[in-house]
TrEMBL record:
N6-(pyridoxal phosphate)lysine sites (modified residues): 646
Protein name, as recorded: Alpha-1,4 glucan phosphorylase
Enzyme Commission code: 2.4.1.1
Lineage: Bacteria, Bacillati, Bacillota, Bacilli, Bacillales
UniProt GO molecular function: glycogen phosphorylase activity; pyridoxal phosphate binding
Amino acid sequence: MFSNSDRFKESFLKRLESMCGKGFEETTKRDQYLTLGNMVREYISSKWIETNELYRSENKKQVYYLSIEFLLGRLLVQNLLNLGIKDVVEEGLNDLDIDLGDIEECESDPALGNGGLGRLAACFLDSLATLNLPGHGYGIRYKHGLFDQKIVDGYQVELPEQWLRHGNVWEVRKPDEAAEILFWGKIETSYDNNELSFKHVGAEKVLAVPYDMPVVGYHVDTVNTLRLWNAEPAAFAPNQDILSYKRDTEAITDFLYPDDTHDEGKILRLKQQYFLVSSSLQSIIASYKKENSNIRELHHSVAIHINDTHPALAVPELMRLLMDIEGLTWDEAWKVTTNTLSYTNHTILSEALEKWPIYLFKPLMPRIYMIIEEINERFCAELWNKYPGDWHKIEHMAIIAHDLVKMAHLAIVGSNSINGVAKIHSDILKHREMKSFYDIYPTKFNNKTNGITHRRWLLKANPGLTNLIKNTIGEDFVHQPDKLIDLKRHIYHPDLKEQFANVKRKRKEILAKRIAEKNGILVDIDSIFDVQVKRMHAYKRQLLNVLHIIYLYNRLKEDVNYTIQPRTFIFGAKASPTYYYAKKIIKLIHSLADKVNNDPRVSKIIKVVFMENYRVSLAEDIFPAADVSEQISTASKEASGTGNMKFMMNGALTVGTLDGANIEIMEEVGKDNIFTFGLTAQEVLNYEENGRYRSMEYYHHDLRIRQVVDQLTNGFFSEDEGEFESIKDSLLVQNDQYFVLRDFASYIDIQEKVGVAYQQRDKWLEKALINISHSGFFSSDRTIQQYADDIWKIDPMGVRV
Ligand code: 8GP
């Protein structure tokens, strides 16, 4: 049906009419989207079946990637592209006067994740399938993904996201493969025939029903699976209030990351984690046992990856299944468990390192808690042998301490590999944050620098640039992204530079149009598009960016002769609903935008734009249009960053601290092609240790700082003077935890250099092209190949249909 555009057109029209029960002229864009989506899924299904059969018959090792987030983005156009049928479809639709872009707009953007960690998981799935690697994702089918953000009077308002409102054409419900999950109740221990056995009685049962989605590799026949679990009522216990049981059960998969600032929310989140882990492990073991009889060899056929600590309950749950269900001894089960599991850490921020209070944990999962206690006791005994008498160390490393279960410790002890996501982050884990674990398990620790899929972030998001690159160096880079380096030989070619400038300009025009429509702000295409898009967080320092803009505003107001290259500062960010500070920064950006954009003279030079509801589909419009990429986290705090890589691949230049993957970007492109500033990670860590930083000194000694900080509360903004008091307090009263004022001067300096560099147009274009040519290293294909070789030990399998 996709062999040529005429055949496609014919099948599409026929299907459209039969599915919708109306004539072509009557059909809506949504009808057209649903029809096309169904056709594509049908087209995928033979490859999907074939892949699964191959995996069964070859019985080689497979990896299962457990993640509480998969930030997929829209799938229709990506699937068309990966299947190699996008041109045929586009042509056929054009004949019918239908624009594929319009149809795409009807697809919801599944936001089953918050940010970097979830988007990385989605890029990894794409790379696994494209590299013909047998690897699948396991996650949760949240009814509502990350909230939709509305801005009302400059404040963020959260609305429930509704990605399933019109159904999901990509998923297949598999009720026959449902798993049962037990919560609450108690454990009865008995001793029969010299064997201990554990019976879970009085438990609340929840059914986990899988929904499978195909993960299509690029121009290969491999179609892997993303299995998302939905919570449904299982069996009612007598005397149970049926309605509340149904409500409590379904609540497990209602929302991504429910508010966890109250105990009620905490229990729900913990339930989600166990729900994901237990259902996934049951399903993995069931599928293993279909082809294999010896469960003691599970690790020869199965690798299970724990994406951050959220699925760390995989350690005790795999132990439980192996001992209580499969009958293995503790030692046998421990060997299989630790040989099967591996773990990635994504952050060193202490508030993100999960610790669960025992009083919540133990009653909810009584058997799992027993097993963790035993793991902890054995681990502490080992430590005692190694460090006799060093109670302090043992207490510090224990899995259970001070009435808390420490999930990172559990994941480290129970896994055979622990990796960070950029060189510096892995080094910080080894030598600081997790040093005591590195000392006892030196070979477990390793680095896997993050990557992004160029198939979404270049081929799909930026077809203009993709074609330009193809015309310049051929198509090899499409399959081997490191071949982008071939572009470097051409960067001095004036034609290439001009064509690149045109591509960029076109994308800036498209974004400018969107800004005009959505924000009612007219931006100058010749201005620098200076972009910071990412979750809103103090450590990411959107505030530093804001203070710089206030500073520029002041200079432009004070000195009519002060000229700079015009700039449009573009922000996009969601703040966690309970994160007061982050929401204040959103308000501050809006107040600043009002001030700047309404000043008749200043607004001709600089503008401030906040793009509402930042998400994958919006990102696909933003990265290609950016000139400057803001990666300005406090050094040591951003584990890697992946937005930095997407910008780079689209020819934006980084303004960044020496943090996360920025450092590796610098190593790739060279110091002349990136703008770095600020404290190094070591300097930040030293300050944190010696406590010698005094933000007040910077406030008192640098007039520019004093002025901008005072403007937060002196009536400069039209809001009530108390509105931004808490932000000022964070800088002065709370001693500026993220060193915003410490890095302010060097940020101003580097930004001045950026402005000057942009005016040397030719040189700027060369720098942009150098960035693109070196971006191949940051392909998630490279990252995934390293995981496959070093951690999971899996090999590709060729699928032929
Ligand atoms: C992010 C890191 O902040 C980012 O540096 C990194 O590039 C990305 O993970 C992928 O490795 N971390 C998270 O998104 C994260 O910790 N999310 C948890 C709150 C869920």
